[in-house]
Specification:
Layout: H1 3-14, E1 52-60, H2 68-71, H3 82-94, E2 99-102, E3 104-105, H4 106-110, E4 127-131, E5 134-139, E6 149-155, E7 159-163, H5 171-178, H6 183-191, E8 195-197, H7 206-211, E9 216-221, H8 222-228, H9 230-241, H10 262-273, E10 279-283, H11 304-310, E11 312-317, H12 327-336, E12 339-342, E13 349-350, E14 353-357, E15 363-364, E16 369-370, E17 377-381, E18 384-385, E19 396-405, E20 408-415, E21 419-422, E22 427-436, H13 448-451, E23 456-461, E24 464-466
Parallel strand pairs: 1-2, 2-6, 3-6, 9-10, 16-24
Antiparallel strand pairs: 1-11, 4-5, 5-6, 6-7, 7-8, 11-12, 12-23, 13-18, 14-15, 14-17, 17-21, 19-20, 19-22, 22-23, 22-24
């Protein structure tokens, strides 16, 4: 368990534990349009270029992590916490995700065999995805018919995600390999189907990130944000314990602690500016182990549903010949860097797109490599907010194009409409969408004046590589 979990959980328990808030903390009546906590699924049809936008989690912990479920994923008799597992499954269904790459910690994960490691429950209607005789993923059955794909992985030495099977039948050898950052072991992970990621890049120097034999690392992690915003969290917990009548809407409770972490963005830009290819992801890192207090909606602060709803990774996936998406197609998109991350707790983006076009008429996706001589133009399509209430003040949206540098990122272009930027210099370029959440002003509680004027990142997109 990371120190932030221990310290904030201890503080939260000291401030009232799991006690419920009073009725005076009820949020304002919801607006007629989109409201916090409301979920929209990704479009089922492919875009004009044949890609499906599939939304999900990369970095999530289940009962097979020793520190999940308030540090009690199983009892002294070794019986796993079915209440916590049910909360995970319910949260995954309610959040409308299409996939989750689990990243359970080494000790418990090492001791858990497939298909338990992918949370397979045949009695609930789950269906295994098979590669020959190997059960590589689990299509989890949801009450509404939705079937998110669950894949296994581990967070230890590195963070291999999408493992088809354990890297060894010997448990001690598994444990050694999962705890290793050696190139031979990371290749062993790949040989068993994984994309080798790294969590918490703030714990590594830029030189270490550049040298490690990994496929990518995180550009955002909510627990790292919690650590740098611990004072804000403790203030909110104190106000909750004191039954403050003007707290944020329960599903906006993370807004005050979501900040742009320069430790992440600087490392991201620096490593890519060296000419290295790395895909970057947004880490939910959900454990259900930090904030057990109940909010006005009758749900604990850190429920799996609330954590899963906050933000996600969108993969642009090319379906297989049957029109389906399996773990293979998702991992192909991840390896290729066809990924953007979105903070959906601020609202759901509709219509976002970023491509690179060439003078020959080629259209290139995120993660693509090309040359200046090809005549490259980066094109960003500004999204809108899905079902935005017409009666509220609209948010301010800004699109930006940035270039990686040794110090992080330089902003090259910005505007409140679609952007087109001609690339004349070799480098690594990405797009982002920023948002000032004026549409949430009435729901942000006592910090509404400041928070509703706060310039926040809404969408982080993976880069293009131009030689």
């Amino acid at each position: 368990m990371r120190n932030v979990h221990r310290h904030l959980l201890a503080a939260s328990l000291a401030l009232g534990g799991c006690s419920s808030t009073s009725s005076s903390n009820n949020p304002p009546p919801p607006p007629p349009g989109w409201q916090p906590g409301q979920v929209f699924t990704t479009p089922r049809a492919p875009n004009a270029r044949g890609f499906l936008d599939r939304r999900g989690l990369i970095h999530a912990h289940s009962i097979y992590s020793h520190d999940a479920c308030d540090g009690e994923p199983k009892d002294t008799n070794g019986v796993y916490n079915q209440t916590c597992l049910a909360d995970f499954r319910r949260g995954l269904c309610q959040s409308g995700h299409d996939f989750v790459f689990l990243t359970d910690h080494r000790d418990s994960f090492t001791d858990t065999e497939f298909p338990d490691a992918i949370l397979h429950q045949p009695s609930a209607g789950d269906v295994l995805v098979m590669h020959g005789s190997t059960a590589s993923a689990n299509r989890m059955a949801c009450p509404d018919g939705h079937a998110p794909l669950i894949m296994a992985g581990s967070e230890a030495g590195t963070m291999p995600v999408g493992l088809r099977q354990h890297v060894s039948t010997d448990r001690s050898e598994r444990s050694r390999a999962y705890g290793s950052r050696d190139a031979l072991d990371t290749q062993l992970h790949r040989d068993n189907g994984a994309v080798v990621m790294l969590a918490h890049p703030e714990d590594f120097t830029q030189d270490q990130l550049a040298a490690l034999p990994i496929d990518g690392f995180e550009m955002f992690n909510v627990h790292a944000n919690a650590l740098i915003n611990a004072g804000t969290i403790l203030t909110m917990l104190t106000d909750l314990a004191n039954n403050d009548p003007d707290l944020p809407h329960p599903d906006l409770v993370f807004v005050p602690i979501i900040t742009e972490d320069t430790r992440y963005t600087t490392r991201w830009g620096n490593v890519l500016s060296r000419g290295l290819r790395r895909v970057t992801t947004m880490g939910s890192d959900c454990h259900r182990n930090s904030f057990p207090q109940m909010l006005a909606d009758g749900e604990r602060i850190d429920s799996y549903r609330r954590a899963m709803n906050a933000f996600s990774n969108h993969l642009l996936v090319r379906p297989n010949v049957d029109g389906l998406v399996t773990d293979d197609e998702l991992k192909d998109a991840l390896r290729a860097g066809r990924l953007y991350g979105a903070f959906e707790l601020l609202g759901y983006p509709v219509g976002f797109d970023v491509v690179a076009t060439t003078s020959a008429g080629d259209v290139l996706e995120m993660g693509s490599q090309t040359t200046v001589a090809a005549g490259v133009t980066l094109r960003v399509t500004m999204p809108t907010l899905q079902d935005l209430d017409a009666s509220v003040e609209p948010p301010v949206l800004t699109a930006r194009i940035l270039r990686a540098t040794a110090e992080g990122w330089d902003v090259l272009a910005s505007g409140e409409d679609d952007l087109a930027f001609s690339v004349t210099t070799p480098g690594v370029y990405r797009a982002e969408i920023r948002l000032v959440p004026r549409h949430l002003r009435a729901l942000l509680g006592y910090d509404r004046a400041a928070l509703s004027q706060k310039d926040m990142v809404w969408i982080y997109a993976n880069p293009f590589f131009v030689d």
